[in-house]
Known about the structure:
The protein is α+β, with helices and mostly antiparallel strands. 52% of the residues lie in helices and 14% in strands. It has helices spanning 23-31, 45-64, 69-84, 86-103, 108-144, 162-185, 191-226, 277-290, 341-372, 387-408, 415-437, 491-497, 504-515, 535-556, and strands spanning 6-7, 19-20, 148-149, 230-239, 245-248, 260-262, 264-266, 299-305, 315-318, 328-332, 337-338, 381-384, 439-443, 446-450, 455-459, 463-469, 472-477, 483-486. Strands 1, 2, 3, 4, 5, 6, 7, 8, 9, 10 and 11 form an 11-stranded mixed β-sheet that branches. A hairpin with a 4-residue loop joins strand 14 and strand 15. The longest helix has 37 residues, at 108-144. The protein is flat, with a radius of gyration of 27 Å.
Amino acid sequence: MNTDVRRTLPATAIPDGCLPWSTEQARRWTRELPPAWIPVRWAGLSVYQLVWLTGVLAALGLIWAGVPPYLAAPAALHLVWLPLRPEIVRVSAPVLALVTVAVRPEPVIPVLAGAFLLTAVSLTVSEPRLRARQRQREAAVAAAGGVTAPLPDTERSLGRGRLLSGLGIVLILAGLAGSALPGATGLWEAELDRQGVTTTGFFVSGLGLTALLSGVLGRRRAVSLRTAPAPVLRVLVREDRRVDAEVYAADDVAGLRPLFTVATVLLDVEEDGGTDDGEAELDDFFEQLDDDKRRPEPLREAVLYGAPYDGAEVVLVSAARKPGDPPVAERSTGPVRPVSEAGVRWRLRVARRQAAWTAADDERHRGLVAAARLTKTAPVRSWRAGVLDRLSGCLMVLAGVLLCLAEFTDRDNELWQQILCALFGLYGAFRIPVKLRWRITADRTGLWLNGLRGTTHIPWDDVRSARREAFELKLRRRGGESWTVSSFSWAWYQRRRGLTHPYDAPAAEISAMQADPALRPTGDSEERERGRPLWPLAVPFVVLWVTAVVVSLVWLQGW
């Protein structure tokens, strides 16, 4: 995590009297963080999705235990609210306990005991975290020494919270409609099916309420930050692998201890009618997906506007990423996420392990690229699916057969499970042809990639990189989405034995051609060499899957 370069901020961009946030003062701030056993907000959509999935499963489990949907859904939503919105828990936990006492659903004793236990655990977890926020803010204000300054974006229109609020309203309406669906349509005859669908609808509405409240709170805190001059501190900042701002103490020039991370957007791209929070967050997300193996950037001097705490809104004015450019002004598009001591230790372990793996992968890639430079040029060069791709496709077919037998021949399976299984099968039917018949063709004009709908052409000037990352062959392009295919990977065995993956060769050859025009093919490829659209190959798989589902439901279950 060390850095060799620190970019300085011009004196004109630093408010008068602005103090550096020293390591000693920052240590006081980190001491006010909640205890390590309290769940806090994680970064990354994958973790959020895991939390939501856990909540759904918990809600369905409560339904099977006999808890009514209007109690099961709020109880499961506490798994979402505890890490994401502890403000809700302060009200929702006691209300849930009071409603349970008033309704007294069967079985009375277990449900009442569970409600009181959930309330006690929720308040025990959320209250210390909420109280810690105030102490963090006080520590940051004390570090600023009473120095304040107006924000650089007070005259701009504020789009903070717009996307989340709109998404929340849509989810609330969709969830309410879904919860009313069983009674309105009569499609679900089994009582357990109706309760499961109703609970899911209530749960989706709860997620919508979470998004709506997050948008409202984010906007409220952002507006409050702009109503008066804010405390200012000099810090160091850089972008992490998720393209979030990572803030360090002003004297932590080695970048050893990140204090917090926060998603940000440039102020100069947020004008009336321009980029809003939602677009900026999506851009950050896709940039993170596209540059998954990016290295840590050099630390840059910055001025932090606002007192940071868990969930706060801030503004950063930092040194330019490129020498000679003006300072960069950014505002938060999400809440401040403090990094705990356990998080720092985990980051160090991950960074060391990933640095070793990345160094080994880079060395192997450079060797393959050097070998590719020695090969003779050809009029046209192509790469296509191999043995591992075909094996992967066959295993997907086998998995589909087993899934069909497991889900559609058992009378005890719920309808929602069968619908979900059918959708997964359709997705697999469209993915199998890509695994079996993908092709990359290189000619003097660029790369030709076949797909379901047709062939895509990427000129050489638009090819950014070609690498094998884990089990994927990824081609990055300028101004467009990355192209990927995936297969099996034996990373641990490969590193141990010094073996290469089949995707390493095309990645190295394309990288050599992209870097040196003299190595590129000299001819023009014909249409038959570029591969045909793959959707005709997907039709038989779709027909077979739909037929298998219908036969299983109608014939084996006697519908």
